[in-house]
Specification:
Layout (H helix, E strand, L loop, with lengths): L1 H4 L2 E2 L2 E5 L12 H17 L7 E6 L5 H14 L3 E7 L2 H6 L10 E5 L8 E8 L2 E2 L2 H8 L14 E3 L2 H15 L14 E4 L7 H7 L28 H14 L3 E5 L6 E5 L4 E2 L1 H15 L4 E5 L4 H9 L3 E5 L3 H13 L4 E5 L5 E3 L8 H17 L4 H4 L8 E9 L4 H12 L7 E3 L7 E5 L6 E7 L5 E8 L5 H12 L5 E2 L1 H8 L2
Parallel strand pairs: 3-4, 3-5, 4-8, 9-10, 13-14, 13-15
Antiparallel strand pairs: 1-2, 2-6, 5-6, 6-7, 10-11, 11-12, 15-16, 17-21, 17-22, 18-19, 19-20, 20-21
Helix pairs in contact: 2-3, 2-5, 6-7, 6-12
GO molecular function, one term: phosphomannomutase activity
Organism: Tetragenococcus osmophilus
Keywords: Phosphoprotein
């Protein structure tokens, strides 16, 4: 049981699927088959009766096909009928529980998002939504097959992505009824799939809507990820799609992560719409459709984003990081009668109330594409949607490795004790639920910084923004002095950064 428990990563399962010089594989076919039994037991205890139907898909990872075969073999051994969807996306696997032609009791996606090639993982959905942290704990602790009967299930190969793409196409057409079947015929839109699962979007969505997609790149699935990390939150990845948009003179560039639950865009002029900028664009869209709605974000968002959302008549709720956390906060607010239409992280995870609160990178792009023809008619650009969003003059992120066995205890102690620091111009921001956030005023310019624990790794993460030049370094030096009291907090990256000044 302990061997399985160590694979839990909040509401995901992740591990090493390919042995390297540095790491020994701990997510093997045998382990995945134990997880399959846990999923069966979880579905049964959740009240699902009768014959089980489960959909299984994977991203482009090198270990994907092998693990998928093992998963399907174990499921069918114990009477589960399986749809083998082959290459798929995480949002599509959830939709396999909603599309009437499949009506799966569960969707299982083999993916580890943007992590290195030797990783893989398991994401699980029921018809009610994504598995929660407690669900994963149950799955990993209930791999006992003694109560199950061996009864051969059927395997059906099916094309999920075509069905999923058709659904997106129909929604984009419905938003532009005067444009016919090809509302994007006047646009050149290129896709960077990062050799993950997102290449389908080029042909099955954009071309189906009439767009010119020439110049799209890295569409071929390749688990070696030879071109760049498939991650819209990665600087090199965004530079790659920026360069392609400008060289191809495209109207829009779209980039996905490996399993397409995250995305970002680059405008015709080469401006990047990710992080705060993407949140701002989507906020304007949902506030136009739902005036006065609330928008849940994770904590490391700019103060300027809050001002922007409030200027549009909306409300920002800054919450703790983790895509399930922001989604669950939005669900909770709605249950309490507070209309909340969007839950989104700066990493690019975005979930709309109208779309099952599913974090779906392709749906994010679909929402933008629904708007694009109208913007063109009005002579407006995507940039014009966030022209009023003030940008910080300077930003910096630093990650500190916690080199203690009980690293969480260390990290929390640092956060608790920095609250006692007494520096003129540093004031604790009470509107914060993760780590500690300080507002910065003279003599430290005008800005803020946030110190928080990483959700998945033994790290403290520091993010600093300032609207005046020259004040981030003095803040970093004060933090360096404070952290000198904690020898197990590795300051190498901060030291290197300051030595270059």
């Amino acid at each position: 049981m302990e061997q399985l428990a160590e694979l839990q990563n909040e509401s995901d399962i992740r591990g090493i699927a390919i042995t390297t010089k540095e790491y020994q594989a701990n997510l093997t076919t045998e382990i995945v088959q134990k997880i399959a039994i846990g999923i069966i037991n979880w579905l049964r205890q959740s009240g699902v009766k009768g014959k089980l139907t489960v959909g299984v898909g994977r991203d482009s990872r090198l270990s994907g096909q092998k693990l998928q075969r093992g998963l399907i073999e174990e499921l069918t051994t114990y009477g589960v009928d399986v749809y083998d969807f082959g290459l798929a996306t995480t949002p599509a696997l959830f939709m396999s529980t909603q599309f009437s032609q499949f009506s799966c009791d569960a969707g299982i996606m083999l993916t580890a998002s943007h992590l290195p090639y030797y990783y893989n993982g398991v994401k699980v959905f029921s018809q009610k939504g994504g598995a929660e942290k407690e669900d994963i704990t149950y799955i990993l602790s209930h791999s006992d097959k003694s109560q199950l009967n061996e009864e051969k299930g059927q395997v059906t190969e099916a094309d999920l992505l075509t069905v999923y793409a058709k659904d997106l196409v129909e929604k984009i057409r419905a938003a532009n009824p005067k444009k016919g079947d090809s509302p994007l015929s006047d646009f050149k839109i290129i896709v960077d799939a990062g050799n993950g699962s997102g290449g389908f979007f080029t042909e099955k969505v954009l071309q189906a809507l009439g767009a010119d997609t020439s110049g799209s790149q890295f569409l071929t699935p390749d688990g070696n990820f030879p071109n760049h990390i498939p991650n819209p939150d990665n600087k090199e990845a965004m530079q790659s799609i920026q360069k392609a948009v400008l060289s191809e003179k495209a109207d829009l560039g779209v980039i996905f992560d490996t399993d397409v639950d995250r995305s970002a865009v680059v405008t015709k002029s080469g401006d990047v719409l990710n992080r705060n900028n993407l949140i701002a664009v989507l906020s304007r869209i949902v506030l136009a459709e739902h005036p006065g709605t609330s928008i849940v974000t994770n904590s490391p968002t700019s103060d300027h984003l809050k001002t922007f959302i409030e200027s549009l008549g909306g409300y920002q709720v800054r919450y703790i990081s983790g895509y399930r956390n922001v989604i669950n906060k939005a669900l909770d607010l709605n249950q309490k009668g507070v209309d909340t239409q969007l839950a989104i992280e700066t990493s690019g995870h975005a979930a709309f109330k109208e779309n099952y609160f599913l974090d779906d990178g392709a749906y994010v792009i679909a929402k933008i594409l629904m708007l694009l023809p109208n913007l063109q008619e009005e002579g407006k650009t995507l940039e014009s949607l966030i022209a009023d969003l003030k940008q910080p003059l300077e930003t910096q992120e630093v990650r500190f490795k916690l080199e203690a066995d009980n690293y969480r205890t260390l990290g929390q102690r640092v956060i608790q004790q920095i609250a006692n620091i007494d520096i003129t111009g540093w004031e604790i921001d009470p509107e914060n639920e993760e780590g500690i956030r300080f507002r910065l005023t003279p003599p430290y310019g005008h800005g803020w910084f946030l110190l928080r624990m990483s959700l998945h790794e033994p790290l403290l993460v520091l993010q600093v923004e300032n609207d005046e030049a020259g004040y981030i370094i003095p803040v970093l030096k004060k933090i360096q002095q404070f952290l000198a009291n904690y020898p197990d907090v590795n300051q190498e990256k901060l030291t290197a950064l300051l030595s270059n000044e």
